[in-house]
């Protein structure tokens, strides 16, 4: 079974890379099932399964009696591959900080589903530890963190393909603090950092606050950052760091193939790489080794947290900093003078209980089903529109719970966001994920709480009508 899964994913990677490199272009016919079976030396059933999966992700389409054709085409290289200052704070505050009425359709926030027994157990554990605090001495939890928690994070890291010791792990106040510590360890104000484009707005805001410039490298919504464009930027500009999310990047859900990760290590020379892996545990297929696991020089700073797997409110993460561990722990100590042992010890006991792993397996099945169902429901509605039929791109990632919708260039995502709010529908506009508004025609959806019922169906009807009406005007 494992061998069949490996063959199947290799076929998918082969086809995706062929499309990204324009071996097969938009609307071009792909090899027949028989041809590809003979070419790759795998069974016809393996090819059929791969084609069906790629069709479900919106990358190819089946035509009656004429095989499969390419729908998805990798984005053209961005013209934004120059160092740019960032000014996103006012827009993010406007979009995210407004008090909202009771939402009837929450597709905007990238928070996990917390309506599970494991989350109830987690907060029961926190309650037990809280009651014990009155019987212990008051003290700070100094870096690198609670000893049992660093041990449990070592185990979680091993599950994700990293071979590390407990002593290499530093506990942080979530992934965002980890990224901040990493950037401060390897850059200074005015330096330039390479990022994916589109890029998570929290990282853009962080770099804005640190006085950094960014080079935005266009990324495929399927295979992630364009490594050849990274190489060109490094050869042209003085780059201090590369910040990437190889697994299911926010907002597109892209996952870098193994060969792209190896190539990124090669072309980046000795430049520090900051690897954000907050969605790494939420993969539906065989995991790909993190970039940190492929690095023999200890220049990759690996960052993870429990926010996307358990609950965003926990604000507990970890960093594996390699050669930068000492400076990061010094910064962490100066920033906080210690953390709360209450949360760290409670989370450590929860992880020790074994409930985390069963929770992850359960949620991965749930998210995979939710995203596939949402994709089918949304595409059915989009395809009914004369203005939208075959004029959009929606891909289903192989992990996480986020989907990225690219609409015609004339579409205004920020206007749609504001109109949707009036209907009590929460979405996130693409404006937030770049420095110059180049994704204003895009929307990001979170399927973490999606349910197939009349309530959600009527909400999707309204959302698509809103999109369609804007394009009709």
Could you characterize what this model shows?
The N and C termini lie far apart (52 Å). The protein is of the alpha/beta class and 473 residues long. The chain has 16 helices and 16 strands. An 8-stranded mixed β-sheet has the order 4-11-10-9-8-5-6-7, sandwiched between helices. It has a 4-stranded antiparallel β-sheet with strand order 12-13-16-15. A two-stranded antiparallel sheet has the order 1-2. Strand 6 and strand 7 (224-225) form a beta hairpin. It is globular. The protein has 3 domains: 2-70, Arc Repressor Mutant, subunit A, CATH 1.10.10.10; 104-114 and 358-472, Aspartate Aminotransferase, domain 1 (Alpha-Beta Complex), CATH 3.90.1150.10; 135-354, Type I PLP-dependent aspartate aminotransferase-like (Major domain) (Aspartate Aminotransferase, domain 2). Helix content is 43%, strand content 14%. The longest helix is centred in the C-terminal third of the chain and has 29 residues, at 355-383. Keywords: DNA-binding, Pyridoxal phosphate, Transcription, Transcription regulation.
CATH topology category name of the largest domain = Aspartate Aminotransferase, domain 2
Shape: globular
Helical stretch tally: 16
| Low-pLDDT residue intervals, each spanning 5 or more residues | 75-79
Do you know the CATH architecture of the largest domain?
A: 3-Layer(aba) Sandwich
The Cα radius of gyration reads: 22 Å
Structural category is alpha/beta
Estimated helix fraction:
40-55%
CATH superfamily of the largest domain: Type I PLP-dependent aspartate aminotransferase-like (Major domain)
Q: What value does the average pLDDT take?
A: 89
- Spatial separation of the terminal alpha carbons: 52 Å
The order of strands across the largest sheet is 4-11-10-9-8-5-6-7
How many structural domains does the protein architecture include? 3
Q: Could you tell me the number of beta strands?
A: 16
Tell me about the largest β-sheet.
8 strands, mixed
How much of the residues is beta strand, in percent? 5-15%
Q: At the first level of CATH, what is the class of the largest domain?
A: Alpha Beta
């Amino acid at each position: 079974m494992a061998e069949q899964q490996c063959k199947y994913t290799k076929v998918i990677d082969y086809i995706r890379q062929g499309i990204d490199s324009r071996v097969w272009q938009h609307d071009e016919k792909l090899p027949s099932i028989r041809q590809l079976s003979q070419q790759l030396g795998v069974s016809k059933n393996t090819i059929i399964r791969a084609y069906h999966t790629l069709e479900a992700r919106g990358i190819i389409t089946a035509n009656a009696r004429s095989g499969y054709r390419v729908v998805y085409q990798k984005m053209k290289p961005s013209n934004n591959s120059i160092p740019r200052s960032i000014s996103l704070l006012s827009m993010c505050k406007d979009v995210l900080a407004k008090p909202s009425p009771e939402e009837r359709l929450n597709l905007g926030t990238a928070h996990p589903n917390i309506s599970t027994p494991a989350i109830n157990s987690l907060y029961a554990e926190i309650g037990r530890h809280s009651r014990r605090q009155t019987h212990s001495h008051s003290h700070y939890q100094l870096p690198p963190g609670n000893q049992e928690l660093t041990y449990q994070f070592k185990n979680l890291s091993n599950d994700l393909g990293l071979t590390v010791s407990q002593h290499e792990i530093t506990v942080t106040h979530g992934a965002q603090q980890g990224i901040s510590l990493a950037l401060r360890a390897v850059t200074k104000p005015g330096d330039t950092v390479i990022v994916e484009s589109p890029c998570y707005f929290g990282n853009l805001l962080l770099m804005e606050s640190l006085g950094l410039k960014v080079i935005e490298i266009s990324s495929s919504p399927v295979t992630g950052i364009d490594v050849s464009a990274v190489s060109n930027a490094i050869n042209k500009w003085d780059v201090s760091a590369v910040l990437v999310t190889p697994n299911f990047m926010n907002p597109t859900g892209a996952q870098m193939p193994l060969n792209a990760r190896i190539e990124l290590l090669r072309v980046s020379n000795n430049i520090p790489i900051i690897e954000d892996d907050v969605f790494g545990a939420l993969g539906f297929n065989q995991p790909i080794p993190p970039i940190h696991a492929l690095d023999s020089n200890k220049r990759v700073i690996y960052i993870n947290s429990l926010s996307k797997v358990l609950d965003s409110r926990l604000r507990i993460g970890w960093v594996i900093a390699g050669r930068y561990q000492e400076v990061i722990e010094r910064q962490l100590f100066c920033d906080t003078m210690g953390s709360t042992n209450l949360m760290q010890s409670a989370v450590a006991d929860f992880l020790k209980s074994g409930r985390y792993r069963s929770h992850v397996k359960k949620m991965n099945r749930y998210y995979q089903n939710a995203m596939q169902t949402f994709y089918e429901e949304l595409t059915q509605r989009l395809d009914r529109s004369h203005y939208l039929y075959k004029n959009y791109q929606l891909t289903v990632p192989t992990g996480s719970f986020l989907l990225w919708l690219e609409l015609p260039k004339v579409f205004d995502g920020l206007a749609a966001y504001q109109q949707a709010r009036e209907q009590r529908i929460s979405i996130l506009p693409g404006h937030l994920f770049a420095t110059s508004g180049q994704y204003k025609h895009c929307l990001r959806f979170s399927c973490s709480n999606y349910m197939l019922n009349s309530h959600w169906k009527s909400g999707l009807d309204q959302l698509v009508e809103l999109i369609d009406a804007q394009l009709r005007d």
